[in-house]
Backbone:
């Protein structure tokens, strides 16, 4: 079984590029060039150097001793929370801004929901002196004021999406419209392992530095490269894709994906796409998607903004359908409890997204000598208000 993308841009039956005709030249230019550009020694040199000196890689692989004792297994945390800007998203935006430069682009657009991807994009645009336009739903602008301020400080223009529900989906539509109108000078930085081919594969490759490092770091710690399990939370699926990438075809490594169950999988207020989703098209690719019987996309819900997405990247849809990955979910309450637990046991306050991945230890029993690597996708600073309100701190 092949778990990587094929020549046509598919992972099994999922993926592809379902885009308006007018967008075809832009996406095709990227498709024809992305692998070639990424293989250039100059590109790799600049990318690796920025990952080291700007992002702060390699991120540590930390043996969480007290957490391991509590659950009677060996838990390692891959510390993406220590990256510049506080999460894994910067790995992808650094890669894509270098790609945009190589393709001769001078203007960057992005869409953002909670603002995390917008901040990571505005950051690399400042770094490279490129114009940056971020589309964001009017409702999201109101509820994510600190991230809007960050983007502005970094020199980006934040344009409100005023149509529809005025959230992420509408911001995405605005970004696509912009790209159609500016095909020559503009690159669209997508923030997760989603979108039309080649985006899911390109984002996965930029994030694959995560599993590349896990291999040699685990070898140093344990004398072997492969853990028994790799675990990550899934919104669109970029931190997960990067965490799994170099283990996809290692049969001894089991893969666990953790989705947000919100108020409960059957509550009508969740984002558990693999359970509730059906095949459909979102954001330019065929994948699993939460939708009504007549194909309207269902509004997802999760306490964590980064997991509040109605679809999942096509690679993950394939991993789910083939049974290569075990899909689990955690509710708001379970995730919050695990976030507090990690804070108290290890002195690490995780992003609420990452707390979902940690919640599996209450649900699944691991063996004493199992090595379980969990992607700690981000830090909890951005979530402090949510933690405060939830725990009445
Ligand atoms: C955005 C985000 C996620 C979810 O995005 P993926 O593409 O699924 O990785 C998870 N964790 C953090 C900290 C995020 O900022």
Residues:
């Amino acid at each position: 079984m092949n778990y990587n993308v094929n020549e046509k841009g598919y992972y099994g039956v999922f993926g592809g590029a379902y885009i308006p005709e007018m967008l075809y030249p832009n996406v095709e230019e990227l498709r024809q060039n992305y692998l070639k550009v990424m293989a250039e020694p100059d590109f790799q040199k600049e990318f690796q150097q920025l990952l080291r000196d700007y992002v702060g890689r390699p991120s540590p692989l930390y043996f969480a001793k007290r957490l391991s004792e509590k659950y009677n297994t060996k838990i390692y945390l891959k510390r993406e929370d220590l990256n510049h800007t506080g999460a894994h998203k910067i790995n992808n935006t650094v890669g894509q801004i270098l790609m945009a430069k190589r393709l001769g682009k001078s203007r960057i657009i992005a869409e953002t929901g909670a603002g995390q991807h917008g901040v990571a994009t505005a950051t690399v645009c400042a770094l490279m002196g490129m114009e940056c336009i971020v589309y964001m739903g009017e409702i999201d602008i109101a509820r994510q004021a600190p991230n809007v301020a960050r983007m502005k400080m970094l020199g980006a223009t934040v344009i409100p999406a005023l149509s529809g529900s005025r959230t992420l989906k509408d911001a995405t539509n605005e970004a696509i419209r912009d790209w159609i109108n500016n095909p020559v000078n503009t690159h669209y930085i997508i923030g997760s392992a989603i979108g039309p081919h080649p985006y899911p594969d390109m984002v996965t490759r930029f994030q694959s530095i995560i599993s590349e490092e896990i291999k040699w770091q685990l070898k140093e710690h344990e004398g072997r490269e492969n853990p028994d399990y790799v675990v990550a939370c899934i919104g669109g699926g970029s931190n997960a894709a990067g965490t799994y990438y170099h283990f996809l075809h290692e049969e001894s490594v089991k893969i666990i994906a953790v989705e947000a169950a919100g108020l409960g999988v059957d509550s009508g207020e969740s984002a558990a796409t693999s359970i509730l989703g059906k095949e459909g098209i979102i954001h330019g690719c065929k994948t699993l998607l939460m939708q009504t019987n007549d194909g309207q996309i269902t509004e997802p819900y999760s306490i964590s903004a980064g997991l509040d997405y109605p679809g999942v990247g096509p690679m993950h849809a394939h991993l789910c359908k083939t049974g290569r990955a075990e899909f689990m979910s955690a509710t708001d309450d379970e995730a919050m409890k695990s976030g507090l637990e990690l804070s108290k046991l290890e002195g690490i306050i995780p992003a609420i997204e990452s707390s979902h991945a940690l919640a599996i230890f209450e649900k699944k029993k691991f063996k004493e000598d199992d090595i379980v690597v969990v992607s700690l996708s981000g830090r909890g600073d951005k979530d402090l208000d949510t933690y405060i309100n939830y725990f009445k701190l």
Q: What stands out?
A: The mean pLDDT is 96. The first helix runs from residue 24 to 39.
